Amino acid sequence: MREFRPVATRRAFEEIASQIRGRLARQGLRAGDRLPPERELAGQFHVSRNTLREALRSLEIAGLLELKKGATGGAFIKEGGGDAAVAGLADLYHLGTIKPEHLTEARIVIGTEVARLACLRRTKEDLATLEANVAAAEHATTKGDMVNRALVNYEFHRLLARAARNPVLTILTDALMEMTRHFVESVGYMPNRYVMPSRHRLLACLRTKDGDAAAREMESMLKRLQRFHLAAYGLNAGRKK
Amino acid sequence: MREFRPVATRRAFEEIASQIRGRLARQGLRAGDRLPPERELAGQFHVSRNTLREALRSLEIAGLLELKKGATGGAFIKEGGGDAAVAGLADLYHLGTIKPEHLTEARIVIGTEVARLACLRRTKEDLATLEANVAAAEHATTKGDMVNRALVNYEFHRLLARAARNPVLTILTDALMEMTRHFVESVGYMPNRYVMPSRHRLLACLRTKDGDAAAREMESMLKRLQRFHLAAYGLNAGRKK
DNA sequence: GTCTCTCAATGGTTCAACCAATTGTTTCGA
DNA sequence: TCGAAACAATTGGTTGAACCATTGAGAGAC
User: Fold this and answer.
1) What's the pTM value of the predicted model, to 2 decimals?
2) B contact residues 43-72, partner A, Cβ 8 Å cutoff
3) DSSP summary character for residue A7
């Protein structure tokens, strides 16, 4: 019944990283804690400093550690911020595993629910920040600053996701915005006349905490954006290097 | 207007990893391609082999490379499978950034839409695989094998996500199931009487490609599961080490 | 007190080996 | 001729020692 498991020909640095991960998971180590210096850790694990460094490097890339130089430096347990997960998802877009049609579809699925939850859970501060963001977007639009307008617009979605108070959605939204940014850069910035009006309707929903209306508004806006993006993608599909 | 940017005190291995990433993004390197041997690459970048290895290590952890030993070994460009992103999200659960209440909520949001899309896009093969999975779950249930039943149930969601044909949702579902697995292991396995009936209703929706009905069924099931899980979490909240 | 300067601690990098796994080739025997 | 065992070449994995670069705390001068 049970299959054979591949023999554990684990590399030394994997074993070390695994042990440190284990202590993290068991709450033996907490954010902000400092690990012993490399030279000492190498001694504890009975490996060379190079090998230990590869282990630390892997944990750093995974977003679990932060390495600081200097007298009071060292390896610090990082607050889980999701950067690594965002980078991992963004890589998949670069690799072509995630294509623009997947990206736009995922944005609709996630964005709709983010808008709904944000409506229900937003604080006054969230609302003020979002209103400021929309004002900044208006400003960039009237100035014709497409690049900044795009950046402010990504930020709107990120802020909205934070207001939804669910880190899974936050991180996913960050990743989707990162991919969208790359997408837009590759097909070129283009003006449109429906995003800003949608923003104001969305703000109205946020003020009245009407989650269903916000979800409908966001879905409708994202679907228009999807058609817009995929059309631009189709036009430019053949000319990429 | 423009803020100062932190001076780029990039480490050597970061610069190398960035260059290789860049070639990947520009399609200069494709899945399956092999990079030159470490000794040669180190020469090309004018760094020591150790430093080069830290760069390769970081790319390996990010899921972009696979390192193989032996005469025909080397650093191979990996097919983008999302393992790194899944691990990154799972780490956030272990770190406590993502809590059980976030997990269960995200599962409802994602699972509902996955069910809807899977209904619309599933092939005959998808349906057959899902039916086989439910049969296996039935078998494990009647045998009282809770552990296997749980594993088969996670697999159901993963299969359903694959049928939805969107890698973002696939990877996210994989990550959510990984977190759920850890959650269930920590609070203990518990029987319930509503998952299996729900599975059969879901299969019926899949057969008739009724996406809305599938979404409703999945949402309802996941909400029951949410109450179930959070209740178990509350009971066990105080006794964790 | 407060401002420098110094210095020790720590991560970053280099170098030169050698170990270990894998594969292709050669050799030798049946 | 064929197959298996021995060998050699290639490549990643590991080691150890040394030196560089950065950082911050403490000593010392004013």
Assistant:
1) 0.90
2) 50, 53-54, 57-58, 60-64
3) P
